[in-house]
Amino acid sequence: MASLVLTDSSQLTSDSQDLDDIKRLLCIGIFPPNSGTGIGRDLVKRLLKYGAEVVAISRTKKHLDSLEAEVKTTKLKTINADLSDWNMARRAAEEAGPIDCLVNNAATAILEPFFDIKPESIDDSFNINVKSIINVSQVIAKGMVDRKNGGTIVNVSSQAAKARHN
């Protein structure tokens, strides 16, 4: 199996230039909120460079459009979906089709003083950081099991990610 090592947002190494075991990859949350860059975007570009077919899901259409314009390849499929919406996220994961490797990179952090935290902030954070990961992983893992091919699911998380300030 090809091993992937992401050491930082600009360096991805692989022991196999053609990524033999990863034919089709789904990367969710390719852009941090309110940004056009990030680990997810860099990962998508690097995997495309290695020849993988990549499906990228993001809630921000303009970021998906800019990625498509930058990479100019038929090996990239983009899906515009709000992962905090359970049904929309599920449909997007199903639309992605058979996936060999899922990278769960979706995350948000809403920073508010402790006494000012609103229930909506907790709901938004939980919907993206927990529920969307479980939801999309269920769809993709079910496909992996049904195809009897196995696969890989990578969960990326960090409190140090860019945060959205309200």
From TrEMBL:
<comment type="similarity">
    <text>Belongs to the short-chain dehydrogenases/reductases (SDR) family.</text>
</comment>
<dbReference type="InterPro" id="IPR036291">
    <property type="entry name" value="NAD(P)-bd_dom_sf"/>
</dbReference>
<dbReference type="InterPro" id="IPR051737">
    <property type="entry name" value="L-xylulose/Carbonyl_redctase"/>
</dbReference>
<dbReference type="GO" id="GO:0004090">
    <property type="term" value="F:carbonyl reductase (NADPH) activity"/>
</dbReference>
<protein>
    <submittedName>
        <fullName>Uncharacterized protein</fullName>
    </submittedName>
</protein>
<dbReference type="GO" id="GO:0005997">
    <property type="term" value="P:xylulose metabolic process"/>
</dbReference>
<keyword id="KW-0521">NADP</keyword>
<dbReference type="GO" id="GO:0006006">
    <property type="term" value="P:glucose metabolic process"/>
</dbReference>
<dbReference type="InterPro" id="IPR002347">
    <property type="entry name" value="SDR_fam"/>
</dbReference>
<dbReference type="Pfam" id="PF00106">
    <property type="entry name" value="adh_short"/>
</dbReference>
<dbReference type="GO" id="GO:0050038">
    <property type="term" value="F:L-xylulose reductase (NADPH) activity"/>
</dbReference>
